[in-house]
Fold this sequence. Notes:
Elements: H1 9-93
Amino acid sequence: MFSSGRPNGAVAATQRETELLLLREAVQRLAQRAKFNERTKEKVTLNGEIQDLKDMLEVKEWKVNDLQYRMENLQEQLRDKKKQMSSLKERVKF
């Protein structure tokens, strides 16, 4: 079967081809895993940015609500001052 104690050329070639195929598959799996890890990192980063934007929006909404409340109070004060002015004008007329 073997003339020199070594595998013949066809068997060695087949074995090398099989090893190359397995190596290529391993490299491909590593590349896919690296791509997956990269996308996972991107997803974490984007989720962080989204949360930051949500927090900023919440702060802005709070500020808007606060300004609306202040504006309503100022409008009420203005109405009261107008009433006071009208009352004083009436007193001055008499």
